[in-house]
Amino acid sequence: MHEDIAGAGWKLHHLGIPVSDLDQAMADYRGLGIASFGEPFLIDSSRAAEYLVYGKRPDPVVTTRGVMGRMGAVGVELLQPLTGHTVHRELLEQSGSGVGHVAYTVDDLEGEASRLEAVGFPVILSITPAGRTGRSAVYIDTRGSFSNLIVELIQAA
Question: Which secondary structure element, helix H or strand E, spans residue 81, and what is its range?
C-alpha cells in the first residue's frame, strides 16, 4: 500500500478530464456558469521531440484536442482523443468522461518520476516538446492504488 506518493513541493495544477466531444463539453460547462476556458489547442505526437505511450512512440500518431480552463480556484483540462492510442482514449473508453488525471507541478520532474517508478508506479506517458532536451510532463500510473486516477507531473518553470 502506498500511503503518500506526493513529494515535497508538489503544487496542484489542474484536473484532466477526457471527453468525447470537446466543443460540447465546453458548452455544457459554460452553460452551467461554472467554468471559463482559453483557446483550444492540438496535441500532435509527431511534433514532439519525444512522445512515448507505455515506453513506445505511438503508431499511428496521437492527436488530441484540448483546452485549459478554470472551475473556480481549480484548473481543468478537457481532452478529446482524435487519433492513435493514448492514455486519454483509454480512460474515456474504460470509464467515460470524468476526472482522469490530477496534475501537479514539481521542481524536479526527473527525480520525482524516478522516485515513483522505484516504488512501483510506472510512467505511461512521457512528453518532451520540440526544441527541449528534457521532459516537460509525465503521466504516472496510479490506477491500481488510487481509484482510476493517473497522476501527471509537470516540470515547474
Answer: strand 74-83
